[in-house]
Amino acid sequence: MVSVTDGHPEIGPAGRPASVASGSGLPAEIIALTLVVPFNDVAALERTFDEHRDSIAGLIMEPVMMNAGIIPPQPEYLARVESIVHDNGALLAFEEVKTGLTVAPGGVTKSMGVSPDIVTLAKSLGGGLPCGAIGGSAEIMEFITDGRYEQVGTFNGNLLTMASARAALTEVLTEDVYRRWDDLRSVMVEGCESAIEACDVLAHVVDVIVVEWLEEASGHELRQHIRRGEEQVVIDLARAHLRHGLAHVVRSRDLEVDPVSLPKSFATLGHR
Ligand SMILES: Cc1ncc(COP(=O)(O)O)c(C=O)c1O
């Protein structure tokens, strides 16, 4: 994966991030084939396409960033992204592995009414079994169906996984369940808000997909979230939640700079 992570001197300025390998073993040539643009920054996306005219194949992005705390798109951002990408003859892929069926039926793609050319799904799709899927417009998927792109694999269409995914999609993830999750989410948001207020910690609550920013100064950009990952904030918030019976698992290394595990809570059907 090529990404921008705090702590790298080569990360570059916020408006023009450099491509930095997220781990070892990535050839420099692969890194050089990617460009990184900041989330929620339309001007940076336009500029990137202008500077690399006719040489960008596509953009892959999480429509709501889920591994940096949670960063929702600003109003109209995704629609602007879609038109900029398409105006430049490129394709748009939404990475909905985490958001997919978790936030709403149809994921962010449906809830926000923006149609990518490709969507990736996984996690909750499999109803507990390991499962991933890609979808796309008929035009794109034809590359697979007519054999121009060979999409084969040991676990493709695995019967057990498919049965579990079908049960998850048709019997578990019903409209009633999504309604119940909405109710649970309200309970969690209100509970977190009152815990934050009672304990007077520097924190705010973001919930997807009813995107609510509860603090005027909330960030819309990855690096602002990284800054909020400061050790004391995470510890204070985890303690505040604990007093209200909500335990967070925060690995010690995450206390330093990694925003991935900033306290995030998921309601399950087991919650009452
Ligand atoms: C946003 C996101 N995308 C993709 C993945 C990995 O998905 P997979 O294991 O299906 O490749 C993860 C984490 O597991 C993730 O958090």
What does this molecule look like?
- The protein is of the alpha/beta class and 272 residues long.
- The chain folds into 2 domains: 136 residues, Aspartate Aminotransferase, domain 2 (3-Layer(aba) Sandwich); 87 residues, no CATH class.
- The chain contains 10 helices and 6 strands, in the order E-E-H-H-E-H-E-H-H-E-E-H-H-H-H-H.
- A 4-stranded mixed sheet has the order 3-4-5-6.
- The two termini are 38 Å apart.
- About 10% of the residues have low confidence.
- Pyridoxal-5'-phosphate (PLP) binds next to loops.
The SS-based structural class is alpha/beta
The H-and-E topology, N to C, reads as EEHHEHEHHEEHHHHH
**Helicity range:** 25-40%
The major pleated sheet works out as: 4 strands, mixed
What is the CA-based Rg, rounded? 20 Å
- pLDDT < 50 stretches: 209-220, 225-229, 250-260
Please give the alpha-carbon distance between the first and last residues: 38 Å
In percent, how much strand structure appears in the residues? 5-15%
